[in-house]
What we know:
- It contains 23 helices and 18 strands.
- By secondary structure, the protein is α+β, with helices and mostly antiparallel strands.
- A five-stranded mixed beta barrel has the order 10-11-12-16-15. A four-stranded antiparallel beta sheet has the order 4-5-7-6. It has a three-stranded mixed beta sheet with strand order 1-3-2.
- The protein is elongated, with a radius of gyration of 37 Å.
Amino acid sequence: DRVPDLFQFSTALAQSVVKKVKPSNLIEMTATNSIMRLMSDGHEQPIDTFVKFKNDISLWYKEMNDYGLNEDEIKLFEEHLLKLNGVADTQESVMLMAMDERISGFDLFEATKLRKGIAKKNKDASLEIRNLLYEKAEKLGNRKVVVDYLWHQIERMLSYAFSLPHTLAYSLIAMEELNIAHYYNPLYWQTACLTVNSGSQEVEEGDKKKDKNYGKVAEAIGKMKSYGVNVALPDINKAEFSFIPDIENNQIIYSLKGIVGINDDLVHAIIEHRPYASFEDFYERLFKEGHITPKQMIQLIKAGCFNSFDNPIEIMKQFIVKQVDVKEKLNMQNIKSIIRLGLLDNPELDIYKQYVNFREYVNKKVVRTVDKPKDKILKLDNYSHNFYMSHFEGKAFVDEHEMEISEKKFKKEYDNAMQPLKDLMETEEFVRKFNVAQFFEEWNKQAQGTVSKWEMESVSYYSSEHELDVANLSAYGVTNFFELSEEPAIIGYNKYKGKETPKYQTYTIAGTVLDRDKNKHTITILTREGVVTCKTYSGSFAHYDKVVSKTNNGKKETIEKSWFTRGNLLLLNGFRRGDQFVLRTYAEKGRQKQHTINLIKEIHQDGSLLLQAERERA
């Protein structure tokens, strides 16, 4: 309820600044609120100098004395900088000093040139304006040390100087943020940051032209979690269209729209039909009524939307059982499904699979039809003739010399041969096996992998356990990126075309792919410790990012997707430089060169990894 008042206050303050405040007072008022350059090329940062002088103003006077300024010159700079604690904070503050007749006496045009020169990275412009400052000061008879000190103030601002209107606008925003931080739980601010950093504000309700960048969402959540903020899975009764703060439980609730494969219409339907008493209640009212597809239902389960009712594995079992066509009885119409499910894949029953395949094969070899009695004459080849003579009585022949059989008579032989299987299919045990096999076939299609993998597929992050937490990563020399030095250690040099290039100590990290940037040739991964950006060169990026495919009967068939597909697990070799992990390996004598990237295909129960070092070939 304070937000409207704050908005009115900010508006009123802005209007009073524009209409009533004099320029000199405006500078004075914004001095304590303005945003100065936080970083410079020097050893001491401007903000640190500002704080130091504010706490002990005598240090500023010492600085001026060290520059050789006399008493009058010190009073001159007091007029301009005392209210700023001795540190020029805006473009306008140095413009006013340069325009002072006691320094360089710039006109407005020259002062504007100065402002532009210190705002951008332009060495030539900076040098030109510096020379002009000294030239004009000399003509006015002012001492060189005065310009020296002015340039000292300017150096702190070079390449990144803010203007007064810029700092004023930021000051108003800072006051609003301060109000939010003071009166409201930090979760409100953290939720807003997550919404912006994930790009979710670009996918507003009703704007169906925007596609959600799930990689960006994953990266934003990974960083938010690294700050200790809990991001909870979307609850079917609590989650909204966007991320929302859950103050009671000190967490941010993931958005329904952020779930992979969930569209606006479904989100509206879910919210409209709330609350849900159980998973069964949701199933009856939304799934059975046609508001949701099976694929979307699977995604909601994987995203943990029903975890308040039961654990996701049990919920998934309930749903897949409902999707399976459970049989109470079986007949020969089910034989294709029985074979597909592998229920005849044993030595005792394999012969029945052969009978089915044989009948299907010979039924295609029709040489003629007979009207009276109605029948089809089938032609056997050498292979099928041998099989027929080995497994059937031969009563279906109409012309043994020509190896022709009656389709009608063969069916009787076939039915007799299949009778033992028919008897078996009528047993409760076999029907149960059939239904169980159907369940696992559907489970393997829809629900393979761990719950952690489900979360990455559906909401692009892990709510608790990383997939790699069960892996024995120490056996592969995997290190914590965040414990590595930001400056890589040089362990030698390589010579190429007469030039020496440093050879760095390399390490191994592992993580889940969150996103990729084809322009910068980077991939973002989520390690067990946090989000890491990995950099490689263009050729290597293109090699691992390409989709390997082949053409089969005029149709393009994918053999292997990009290794940088979101959700893939990678083992990466390289070194840390600043905030990035640079992918690199070096050849060693007597040893095969290590690959920069390995795809983790599987994590075995003992924690070992099944790795793939080379791309598939078309």
